[in-house]
């Protein structure tokens, strides 16, 4: 199975050019990260919102599950943003949901996480072998250079790709609009909702960067057909989030795993109403209510914190209508719950099949 070996395999020292996207906030447990790496792909811890102690423990545990295969770390670097709405209006909009969940009318402030720089430092000290970034990678570049660890910046625009190249990253993740989760949009176009799809973004970013910087495709890819397509338009690999959410090792709430089954692309929407920055969510009562409330947000940082106890309570109480859940447009292609190594094996086999089909369809040269 060497057909899909690319420069990304050299950069990350892996068998397959497939990365588990960094997913903070629960999905990427050390077990999932280790299992993905052990299977020959590249597992990435999502450490945003945690503490140095938690990162040290997770890095060590993920490596023990990886059986000597390398793992990486992902961090969100976007600065906080000012509120566009008021605290009082947000409390009003969320009051009925909080009452249903048995929560007080106003949330308590959640604990403050350690700064992203310290989290990456702890992961590097623990042996993480690559760093992927969400937002402008500049703040952690020097530290990674000193540790001789590659930095891979995710961006949603061609302009972001140029900025990341000029900053000195080793590769770029081109994040298409289909992606689940938050959009890594920065630079001149920071305020954009990031509307460019993966198949349009990858080849144009490749052209803009003169084919010199490896480009990894992310967004809307959940089987071998998607991986083959991304490679045919110039990607050297892929970074996949949603397809790994159903893995038995993933830490998503059971109702989140359940909600992915049979999901249609149109069942997800991009809105900044949940956290203060645009992200793709599964549509449900609370996401729709926030997206249509027209009350602004408390800004990136405070808006997410304001909903932290709602998310916790909704997950604990099994309330799929009140739990904001991230997922990409290809969720319907994700497998039924199964071990992560099977997901990796299926992705690899599917990519070979799709590439063989493309060769057959093209006929003799
Ligand atoms: C549940 C979830 C959480 C995510 N969290 C992060 C994160 O912490 N950092 C990050 O860089 N990207 C995050 N993303 C975005 C992924 O890096 C990736 O771009 C996306 O999952 C690709 O699209 P796909 O879900 O269709 O595979 C997240 C995505 C999901 C679905």
Give the gist of this structure:
It is built from 14 helices and 11 strands. The chain is of the alpha/beta class and 365 residues long.
Characterize the structure shown.
By secondary structure, this protein is of the alpha/beta class. It contains 14 helices and 11 strands. It has helices at 7-12, 30-38, 52-66, 87-100, 116-125, 138-146, 158-167, 198-208, 224-232, 254-260, 285-293, 302-306, 308-316, 340-362; strands at 18-20, 43-46, 71-76, 131-134, 151-155, 171-175, 181-182, 215-218, 237-240, 268-271, 279-282. An 8-stranded parallel beta sheet has the order 1-9-8-6-5-4-3-2. A 3-stranded antiparallel beta sheet has the order 7-11-10, with no helix packed on it. Helix 9 links the parallel strand 8 and strand 9. Helix 2 packs parallel to helix 3, helix 3 (52-66) packs parallel to helix 5 (116-125) and helix 7 crosses helix 8. The longest helix has 23 residues, at 340-362. It starts with 6 loop residues before the first helix and ends with a helix. Bound molecules: flavin mononucleotide. Flavin mononucleotide is lined by residues 21-24, 27, 46, 48, 74, 76, 134, 154, 175, 178-181, 184, 218-221, 239-242, 326-328, 330.
Number of strands: 11
Order of strands in the sheet with most strands: 1-9-8-6-5-4-3-2
Question: What is the H/E order?
Answer: HEHEHEHHEHEHEEHEHEHEEHHHH
Portion of residues in beta strands equals 5-15%
Number of helices: 14
Proportion in helices: 40-55%
Q: Could you say which structural class the secondary elements and strand pairing correspond to?
A: alpha/beta
Described by the principal axes of the CA atoms, the overall outline is globular
- Quaternary state of this entry equals single chain
Spans with pLDDT under 50 lasting ≥5 residues? none
Bound molecules: flavin mononucleotide
């Amino acid at each position: 199975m060497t057909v899909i070996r690319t420069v990304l395999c050299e950069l990350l020292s892996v068998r397959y050019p497939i990365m588990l996207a960094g997913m903070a906030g629960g999905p990427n447990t050390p077990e999932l990260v280790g299992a993905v790496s052990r299977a020959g792909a590249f597992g990435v811890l999502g450490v945003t919102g945690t503490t140095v102690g938690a990162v040290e423990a997770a890095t060590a545990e993920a490596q023990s599950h990886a059986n000597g295969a390398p793992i990486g770390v992902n961090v969100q670097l976007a600065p906080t943003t000012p509120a566009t709405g008021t605290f009082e209006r947000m409390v009003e909009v969320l009051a009925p949901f909080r009452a249903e969940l048995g929560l007080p009318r106003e949330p308590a402030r959640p604990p403050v996480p350690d700064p992203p720089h310290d989290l990456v430092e702890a992961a590097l000290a623990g042996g993480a072998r690559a760093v992927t970034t969400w937002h402008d990678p500049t703040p952690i570049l020097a530290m990674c250079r000193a540790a001789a660890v590659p930095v891979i910046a995710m961006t949603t625009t061609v302009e972001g790709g140029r900025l990341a190249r000029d900053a000195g990253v080793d590769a770029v993740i081109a994040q298409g609009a289909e992606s689940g989760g938050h959009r890594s949009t920065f630079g001149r176009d920071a305020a954009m909702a990031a509307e460019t799809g993966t198949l349009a973004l990858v080849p144009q970013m490749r052209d803009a960067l003169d084919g010199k910087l490896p480009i990894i495709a992310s967004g809307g890819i959940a089987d071998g057909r998607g991986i083959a397509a991304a490679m045919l338009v110039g990607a050297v690999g892929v970074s996949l989030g949603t397809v790994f959410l159903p893995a038995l090792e993933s830490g998503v709430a059971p109702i989140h795993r359940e909600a992915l089954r049979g999901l249609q692309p149109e069942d997800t929407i991009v809105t900044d109403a949940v956290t203060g920055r645009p992200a793709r969510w599964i549509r449900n009562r609370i996401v729709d209510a926030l997206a249509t409330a027209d009350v602004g947000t408390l800004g990136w940082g405070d808006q997410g914190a304001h909903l932290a106890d709602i998310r916790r309570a909704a997950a604990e109480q099994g309330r799929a209508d009140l739990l904001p859940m991230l997922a990409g447009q290809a969720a319907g292609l994700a497998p039924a719950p199964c071990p992560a190594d099977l997901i990796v094996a299926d992705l690899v086999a599917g990519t070979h099949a799709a590439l063989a089909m493309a060769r057959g369809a093209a006929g003799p040269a």
